[in-house]
Amino acid sequence: MDIIWWVAYVALGGFVGLMAGLLGIGGGGIMVPILTSLFVLQGVPHEHLAHLALGTAMAAIIPASTASLLSHHRHGAVRWDIVRFITPGILAGTFFATFVAALIPTRSLAIFFACFMVLMSIQMLINVKPKPSRSLPSPVGVSGVGLGIGGISALVAIGGGSLTVPFLTWCNVTLPRAIGTSAAVGLPIALAGALGYIINGWGVSGLPDATLGFVYLPAFLLMAPFSILMAPIGAKLAHKLPVALLKRVFAFLLMGLALQMVYAVFTA
Question: Model's pTM, two decimal places?
Answer without folding.
Answer: 0.90
